[in-house]
Design a protein that fits this description.
With 292 residues, the chain is an alpha+beta fold. The protein contains six helices and 16 strands. Strand 9 and strand 10 form a beta hairpin. The protein is globular, with a radius of gyration of 21 Å.
Length: 292
């Protein structure tokens, strides 16, 4: 399972509109603070939460109810500044336990949405949080809007044998490669998006598009939907839209060696460096590598 898909925290959706239950639970609740950079307070690999009563006697404006962990309500809130040992999901996500990883992933995603949704997309008026942070209401018309998640596909293109296509974006340092990805457009199916994005980015037609799995990606508020597809390694690659600087077909042995060398942060003198374990891309490549 992709690392950021792990979560054993019950979301308790039925309590989001139950004001009495939320007020009652606040006395024993915990609060997860997230700074503007998506960082949280940690002690090594353990997430640090604060007692809710430190903020007042009842739920405060701007806090979001995340659910219930170990019998206690857990809320998230934006903190302008945090002190102590700080880490974000990219740095610590692979080290967190299932409960902590689920809490941070959900908190970062929902707080990012609130930051960008302060005005109603329907009428332009300021909006206010409602349903314990799981919607926003226009102060002008009362129109209700819900958290937005942007779907993106990510696809391992292989030749049906022992070769896989990996690409590098122009902003990435040389030797850093990954599988291809792109956002789903309006009115488009996920499978159609896979074929369109690969055609646009590298000029390659693919077939046999198969679903692999998904992972939330709160940077700022996406969900990555993983696929595999088959392409012809003899077909020319064309980088027409400027999103890809280079792409090459790599063998399974080359991918295995790159996985053993570490990730993008590795200092190994290798032709190929791959994403870290926090990314669904690495999980897909690990599965493909092992399958052979």
């Amino acid at each position: 399972m992709p690392l950021l898909s792990r979560s054993s925290v019950g979301r308790a959706e039925e309590l989001r509109s139950d004001v009495d239950a939320l007020v009652s639970g606040w006395g024993e609740a915990h609060v997860l603070e997230v700074d503007p950079r998506g960082r949280v307070r940690v002690d090594g690999t353990r997430l640090l939460l604060r007692d809710a009563t430190e903020f007042g006697r009842e739920p405060i404006r701007g806090a979001v109810f995340l659910g219930i962990r170990e019998g206690r309500h857990v809320w998230a809130m934006r903190a302008s500044e945090l002190v102590g040992e700080l880490a974000d999901l990219r740095l610590l996500g692979s080290e967190l336990g299932d409960e902590d990883a689920g809490l941070v992933t959900g908190a970062v995603a929902i707080l990012n949405w609130h930051d960008s949704a302060r005005f109603s997309a329907y009428d332009g008026a300021p909006s206010e949080p409602s349903v314990s942070g799981w919607s926003r209401i226009s102060t002008s018309t009362g129109h209700e809007e819900f958290p937005r998640t942007d779907p993106a596909v990510i696809c391992l293109v292989h030749d049906g044998g022992d070769r896989v296509l990996l690409a590098r974006q122009p902003s990435w340092p040389r030797r850093r490669f990954s599988i291809l990805a792109g956002f789903v457009e309006a009115g488009e199916s996920l499978e159609t998006c896979v074929m369109r994005e690969i055609k646009e980015e590298v000029g390659l037609d693919v077939e046999d598009v198969r679903y692999l799995g998904s992972q939330p990606w709160p940077f700022p508020r996406s969900v990555m939907i993983g696929y595999a597809a088959v392409g012809d390694p003899e077909a020319p690659l064309v980088f027409a839209d400027g999103e890809i600087a280079e792409a090459h077909w790599f063998t399974r042995d080359e991918v295995r060696a790159a996985l053993e060398a570490g990730d993008w942060t590795s200092t190994a003198d290798a032709r190929l460096l791959l994403p870290g374990s926090i990314s669904i891309a690495r999980g897909i490549l690990e599965s493909w590598s092992a399958a052979g």
